Amino acid sequence: MRIIIYGVGAIGGTVAAALALSGQEVIGIARGAHLKAVQADGLLLRTPEKTVRANYPCVSDPTEIALRPDDAILLTMKTQDTPAALERLRAAGVAEQAIFCVQNGVTNERLSLRHFPEVHGVTVMMPAAISAPGEVSAFSVPRHGIFDIGRYPGGSNAHDAKLAEAMEAANIAAFVSQDVMQSKHGKLLLNLSNILQAALGLDADYKHLEALLRAEAEAAYRAAGIRWLDVGAADARRAQLMQQRPIAGIDRLGSSTTQSLARGAGSIETDYLNGEIVLLGRLHGVPVPANTYFTELGARMAREGLKPGAILLAEAEAELSALGALPGR
Known about the structure:
alpha/beta, N-(1-d-carboxylethyl)-l-norvaline Dehydrogenase, domain 2, 2 domains, four-stranded mixed beta sheet
């Protein structure tokens, strides 16, 4: 099996470097300064325990790769970039190769299945960031992260087992799941707070807003008949396998949403995180005003180029209260 990493950012870069260092055959797909740096000098992987450089081929587009039937293609871009990526894979001649959605949210698998028959979901728990072009930092020990892997819409097959084996060899804890979307719906509940951190800042006290967003989401899930697993603090694997530690000289910016705003990426994935709850609420008649507010706020911050922490907590609370979304305030 050869593994193609489509999107060598924080998650994709960590995965690509870890796999390459374990001896796995890897090809990356990247863009911009990051691509140039990886092509010139490989990818520098920083962890709390060591700094190592991984070398592997990296290209700008799937059409530059001579595809093989045994390729496993890992999508590691943000959801808003998935449709364009799928079109490029189709243009490259992808047909029966296994597609793994190593992404937050629960939309990518459905998008991929419209194009390709062999689609798999991966729940990603991996605190990582791009430190500089050609450099990623992974903040977890003893493993770089935890992945749940399974076929979409359900079950598992040999593709999942092979990828899990490769991830384990690369110091990423991997578990084959028969219902990976339960896990991914549980992870989505955690990611609802990404926009809180991005909008209000790392030091803001927004736990009451986290609870509000989650309560709306769980009500929408129940109305839609969606089951989910708790992959948060109650997941014993996190304490055993994924303890976050600092890396000397590296400031962790926070969630992927915060990192996107800090880079001025021009788009963020809130539409597919909180926006997923908005969609479910509208489909099933469940009020979700807080998730609606933060979905729209995320779009405004990306549109206006606002930096992380640009919104005052009191401002957000006042606007939520005016919408009737924050009772008792």
